[in-house]
Amino acid sequence: MTTRYSKHLPGFVFLSDLLLLNVALYNSHFIKFNTFRPENTSVTFILLVNIAWVVVSALSRSFYVFRPLLLRDNINKFLLTLIYHLLCVFGIIYFFKIFNISRAEVMLSYSIFFILVVAQRSALFFFLDYIRKKGYNHRQIVIIGDQNIAQRLVRSFSQHPEYGYDLNDFISEEQMAGMTEDALMQLLIEKGPNEIFICYKQMNTELLNRLVKMGDTYLIKIKVVSDLILSNNYAQLVNYDNVPVLHLNSHPEIGLKIRLLKRSFDILFSTTVMVTGAPVFFVLYTITKLTSKGPAFFRQERIGKNEKPFYIYKFRSMRVNAELAGPQLSKDNDPRITKWGMIMRKARLDELPQFWNVLKGDMSVVGPRPERQYYIEQIVEKTPSYRKLLRVKPGLTSIGQVHYGYAENVDQMCDRVRYDLLYLQNISLNSDLNIILKTVKVMVQGKGK
After folding, report:
1. 163, 235, 240, 357, 440 from 267: Cα distances, Å
2. DSSP letter string over 408-434?
3. Alpha-carbon gap, residue 403 to 407, rounded angstroms
4. What are φ and ψ of residue 320, in 5° steps?
5. What is the DSSP letter of 318?
6. Tens digit of pLDDT for each residue in 275-308?
7. pTM
8. Which residues make Cβ contacts (< 8 Å) with residue 322, sequence separation at least 6?
9. CB atoms within 10 A of CB 330
10. Among 218, 343, 370, 435, which residue is least crowded by beta carbons within 10 Å?
């Protein structure tokens, strides 16, 4: 059973995305105005959003589902498309001065659309994974070249049936040596594969060029398999003119798209929190001011991305001059913490002013917690890999912060580093959202320390 339906999949995803977009638009209009029938500017807004989505989605090709199935990567690509679309729509609204569109309707539309698409993609990937394991939606492949490399590749495919590959034939280097290039080309065409994997330690440039041209002609994907074995390393292909070079690293490089996506999310999320949470900020400011002597805000130098120092802001939870004796970490029943400060720390409310740091670009919403140079030097002595965390923006919250909260000593700081290094290896907007939800849970339950 090797039936393929992949050629219909992009069109299906594109149309279902468009359908979900309109479901989100009409439902948000109903929530806001208690009717599904849009009028005047709402009609203009819905039409504009649909046209913009068709254009932006077609350009980004966010509706394509590639093998192997990686839900996180697909959703990240969709989110990037959504941000481009949002910027496009806002640009048109501003240019044509269509200012009487309900902001609540806009935010509801995009929020519902995002939730619906995440659910749709999750269901789709689960379905594709299931049917490929059952033998459907498969692609026929031919492997040529070195036998040892080919065996590793076949072993990988057999361990992951969700890839959906069926081996049509393997042509070894010895077999290829006994035939002409023309005979090899004719044999490959007769096999009719969807993809050809070339396993070579030393490439024959002329043969490779002919295979690529043949693939273009007969719509066959040509893929080259290296003889390298990477365990926990990450590879990025860099082209120096006509020389392909693999750049290896112990952690994935954070690409431009991810950085743009994180920064856009940081700005949008921080602005939303600071605007909608302004009354909460005012209440916290007032109580902090009234319950203890000193300023309501606390400022302290921390080390950020690329070891650049910056000032972090918090609602003051300790008494003034709490560190006259030098840098000290807080601990349970710390006498320096005020009674109101203890309440704020339990709910992490003292960290809220750091959304200003996020807007300024010193921090991200999610990322390793920034530390002082005094403690960084001690952490690096025990855990040299901590330096990796200095390559990214520090965060208002992190997976380490969720599990550990405020560290009481350097050893706990080092333990927290392990969590943050795991985050660094799997950095994505999906993991950021998951960490934010866990942080909110800690805040609601008052389990911060």
Report:
1. 37, 30, 35, 11, 19
2. SSHHHHHHHHHHHHHHHHT--HHHHHH
3. 10
4. -60, 145
5. B
6. 888 999 999 999 999 999 999 999 999 999 999 9
7. 0.55
8. 328, 336
9. 17
10. 218
